[in-house]
Amino acid sequence: MSERTLAIVKPDAVKKNAIGDIINRYEKAGLRPVAMRLMHMSKATAQGFYAVHKARPFFDSLCTFMSSGPCVVLVLQGDNAIKKNRELMGATDPAKAEQGTIRAAHGANIEFNAVHGSDAPETAKFEIGYFFAEMELVG
Ligand code: CMP
């Protein structure tokens, strides 16, 4: 079933010049970008995006990190896009991510973990709508 998911190439991965490698992995796996933007989030934008985590001890640090430099936000479309992207990313903690995954290759630790991907259809809907208007999705 074709579906859409929101992905973010986080500021740590952009600083490491890993945008191309990460997007290449999406494309090779059959996940096609249907919207994409290079942006430097404000802290308030990061707080709104990660509002579900606002009670977590790492929330402030996470939002500082996500607004520390440019990132790439993109909508990926393909068969089972949500699950496929989570497999490509690997575990949240790069130390636990399987070899060959994006986080194993580019993540430094559980916070600076290179990429984000929606975890379920409802979150994908919220996250895509947070950054993109329907008319910006070109798939
Ligand atoms: P992400 O998949 O974007 O979703 C929430 C983010 O919070 C996660 O990736 C990490 O960047 C960060 N995160 C999750 N757990 C922790 C933690 N225990 N300590 C610090 N950051 C975390």
TrEMBL record:
It comes from Nitrospira defluvii. It is an enzyme of class 2 (transferase). The active site is at H116. GO terms for molecular function: ATP binding; metal ion binding; nucleoside diphosphate kinase activity. Pfam families: NDK. This is Nucleoside diphosphate kinase. Homotetramer. The gene is ndk. It catalyses: a 2'-deoxyribonucleoside 5'-diphosphate + ATP = a 2'-deoxyribonucleoside 5'-triphosphate + ADP; a ribonucleoside 5'-diphosphate + ATP = a ribonucleoside 5'-triphosphate + ADP. Residues 2-139 form the Nucleoside diphosphate kinase-like domain. The lineage of its organism: Bacteria, Pseudomonadati, Nitrospirota, Nitrospiria, Nitrospirales. Its cofactor is Mg(2+). Its EC number is 2.7.4.6.
